Amino acid sequence: MSNQSLPAIRVNQIGYAAGLPIEAAALAEGPFRLTDAQGRVIRLLDGAKCHLDEASGDHVRLLQLGTLPEGDYALEGGGEKRTLIVRRQPWRTVGNALIKGLYYQRCGCALEEKHAGVYAHPACHTKAAADWERPDVFREVRGGWHDAGDYGKYTGPGAVTAAHLMYAFQLFPEGCGDKLNIPETGNGVPDILNEARYELSWLIGMQRADGAFHHKLTKARFAPFIMPQDDREPEYLMPVSHCATAAACACLALGSRVYRPYDEAFADRMLRASLAAWQWLSSHPDFVPFRNPEGVRTGQYGEQTDADDRFWAACELYAATGDEGYRLAAEALYARGLTPTRFGWADVSGLGALCCLTDLKERAGGILFGRLPEDFLRGCEQALALSARSGYGTALAPDHYVWGSILPVLSNAMAMIIGERLTGRTDFRDAALRQWHYALGLNALDLCFVTGFGERQVLHPHHRPSGADGIGAPVPGLIAGGPNQRFPYPGTREKLAPDTPPAKCYLDETPSADTNEIAIYWNSPAVFTAAYFNMITR
Ligand code: 9MR
Ligand code: ZN
Predict the structure, then answer these.
(1) Domain 92-443+516-536 CATH assignment equals 1.50.10.10
(2) Considering only CA atoms, which of 415, 394, 378 is closest in space to residue 532?
(3) Could you tell me if the CB of 375 is within 6 A of ligand 1?
(4) How many Cβ atoms from other residues are within 10 Å of residue 295's Cβ?
(5) What residue ranges of the chain are covered by domains with CATH 2.60.40.10?
(6) The pLDDT value given to residue 366
(7) What is the model's pLDDT at position 310?
(8) Which of 402, 517, 518 has most ligand 1 atoms within 8 Å of CB, for mutation?
(9) 513 Cβ closer than 6 Å to some ligand 1 atom
């Protein structure tokens, strides 16, 4: 994708909020002017210099347009003109779509036309799965979300995704939208919790009789690009793992808190499962990393440690039960040196931190109420500094454009959102907003990463249903992983010029799983971010 072909002005393609600071990126030095719908000049910006943005190789500057009332504006400069939309609640629709995107990932049930429209399909993956280690033992574990562009279901990533949704609801209920037109809509439970419950119910089923959790429920190999209902080869309950068990333990303890007001019995079931998982973890203290068994090629989701997962679990079990033992365990695990601002599947320390900062508070005691918030705010400062260093305001170091780079970007948004909640600092809020703008088009690719949205859309995500359904437009409301310079596929590398800068290592092509796959745990931090901004622009 050559730079020349892209416009000199980059904007949040979905729009901006009246009342929040408005920024656009300019890749030209001359003066810029902003006019309103009547053609009146609202802002004149001088011809300040652009600076080299290391991640993209672009010469760029961020134009500060201040706050503006609702309306349609035009930004002109560098020989170009671009529309800029300002609304009171610009991100409600995309926020809802990001949750509904998870509905489209539902496994084990039919997506009916009245909810899924043209993306309807019959039930998939309904057969009992064999235990990989005891192939004569079968269990029926229905439900859950397909993880990503593949049809696997992975315990740890699923737990993290459900947790993002639950925390979005706990912290920003008014920003979570409702009436998503999913099967449960109107049942008296907010739809974000209805959707998360679809995963939680499946998660409970991933527990083995001894309390441990199977790492994943997948086939031995990824399916070809076929519809899920046509993917009929057997699925397996793959071996249990420490990380899966601890993440599920944490998520289900959280679930027991969140769902108690709606369904006591469901809350109790989750708590029982969580307690049994903790029991197993206590009697299996030595970490064993999960490795794909011989012959298995589906996602490995391998990790170096389970300390972060155990920490999160201990925090949530303390919040759910008030039992001092969990608090002491959480303290001891935290003392091993965790980074409390990480919210991705590989490092879930941030979710434990969220529990301490937003639920436990004083009850967390000395270390977790004293040192943890300090460490947390230091992490926010680091994210803020990354954003300030980037020409586009993106909180990602130039050498961190990894597979799924949208995750560290949005994880930093989540951290700064919490940072704002803790301190009231608007610089955290505004830097978090820049990450949201990044996701929605203010970036080096001039691309809105959410399918179905924006002027320049992701059209060919690595997503089996989108590729196989014969419908032109991809399934909407799914966020692509984005540029990846660290581990590109050979097929991606050969299509990109050898000197392509990190933030441009992206292909909108179906085979490019390394840059253009979607994943549930990339949607969910976007849901969290949307919920916050939707709440403060309410
Ligand atoms: O999100 C995962 C990313 O961090 C890894 O670098 C990548 C390669 O191991 O795998 C990603 O996860 C994929 C998983 O293994 C299988 N389902 C699709 C996931 C998204 O690409
Ligand atoms: Zn399925």
Answers:
(1) yes
(2) 415
(3) no
(4) 8
(5) 1-90
(6) 84
(7) 98
(8) 517
(9) yes
For 453, residues 6+ apart whose C-beta sits below 8 A from its C-beta are: 13, 14, 94, 97, 440, 476
- Looking at residue 349, its amino acid is S
| DSSP SS3 for 64 | strand
157 lines ligand 1 (CB under 6 A): no
Which CATH number does the domain 1-90 belong to among 3.30.70.1660, 3.40.30.10, 2.60.40.10, 2.40.50.140? Answer: 2.60.40.10
What's residue 2's pLDDT? 43
Catalytic positions, written as ranges: 150, 462, 508, 517
- Averaged pLDDT in 10-residue chunks for the chain of 538 residues: 74 98 96 97 91 98 97 96 97 98 98 98 98 96 98 98 98 94 98 98 98 98 98 96 99 98 98 99 98 98 98 98 97 97 98 97 90 97 98 98 98 98 98 99 98 98 98 98 94 94 98 98 99 97
Nearest protein Cα to ligand 1, atom 18? 148
Among the atoms of ligand 1, which is closest to the Cα of residue 152? 17
What are the residue ranges of CATH 1.50.10.10 in the chain?
A: 92-443+516-536
CA 468 / ligand 1 centre spacing (Å): 21
**Cα separation of 520 and 92, whole Å?**
19
Strand partners, 25: 10, 62
